[in-house]
Write a structure and sequence with these properties.
With about 100 residues, the protein is mainly alpha-helical. The chain has four helices and no strands.
Length: about 100
């Protein structure tokens, strides 16, 4: 059973690490959007290629005032960030703890 426990803990830690990395990418993308940068710069294009598919998928389920409002503020990254924090804390940490108990 300890092998399965170690596997679950490792998978949980990997998922925590990946979601934390993606949250960092979202944060950098939001900060970069505040500045008038060249949209064809390779780094800006890379960030958009990574984040926009997730934003588009989330916008399908969100009401329009959240991402298309009069103030010009898109709250989609904040909602995705919050969802990743909840996923990290509720699901992935539970997976790590379950693996630790199986040892």
């Amino acid at each position: 059973m300890f092998i399965i426990g170690n596997l679950l803990s490792t998978v949980g830690r990997l998922l925590v690490w990946l979601t934390s990395l993606y949250m960092l990418v979202i944060f950098i993308s939001v900060v970069i959007s505040w500045f008038p940068l060249d949209p064809f710069h390779p780094f800006v294009r890379f960030l958009r290629q990574i984040t926009e598919p997730v934003y588009d998928r989330a916008r399908r389920y969100l009401p329009a005032p959240i991402y298309d409002n009069a103030m010009g503020v898109d709250f989609t990254p904040a909602i995705i960030f919050l969802a990743l924090v909840l996923l990290n804390g509720a699901v992935f940490q539970s997976l790590i703890e379950l693996g630790a108990r199986m040892r």
